[in-house]
Amino acid sequence: DIVMTQSPDSLAVSLGERATINCKSSQSVLYSSNNKNYLAWYQHKPGQPPKLLIYWASTRQSGVPDRFSGSGSGTEFTLTISSLQAEDVAVYYCHQHYTTPPTFGQGTKVDIK
Amino acid sequence: EVQLVESGGGLVQPGGSLRLSCAASGFTFSRYWMTWVRQVPGKGLEWVANIKEDGSEEHYLDSVKGRFTISRDNAQKSLYLQMNSLRAEDTALYHCARNGAVVTAIPVDWGPGTLVTVSS
Predict the structure, then answer these.
(1) Do B44 and A107 touch (CB under 8 A)?
(2) For A76-87, what is each residue's pLDDT tens digit?
(3) What is the pLDDT of residue B64?
(4) Rounded to whole angstroms, how far apart are CA atoms A44 and A90?
């Protein structure tokens, strides 16, 4: 199974500041035939189901604010929240679907400083 | 609006069985892969199983293979998860999810979940 490792486990950022979450996969999730990274990011708020933010590593899901962006390729990826808002407090997960079983990172908790 | 509502969770003894259901509405159910994902309380997300649009293909997490069966009834717009030989480590909130139309392998829309507790 591909192991997804996120860092840090938690971070606290001031409102309006940048938050950066890293995700590393134990093997590449880049599919060479279409040059796409099979990597997604989810936001999970307490009491709500997870919400898809980013797929193909950097494509924003419809309706997701543009302060959320994804980058990276191969085995190293980053989710950036450019200007943290109060409603962004949540746990964020990276998710690979390159192989079965699809796997999630352990999650990164984002709070307001 | 896409709606997914899970049911069937509850308290069951180790070795017991449960059948989870997921009622779908707001989209053409038969056109989408569907997935079950679970979350152990206070911990992370774990993919459990998924099933192709017409039910002709299924995939499972190794630890549930041979014990869990995913199925669907497209006429009833329903997804199911039959769980047998349940273990304490299967205790979790189980979400059903509709996969994407563009990226068919990833859950896009999720239900609120149904809680399964395996304990004596």
Answers:
(1) yes
(2) 999 999 999 999
(3) 98
(4) 6
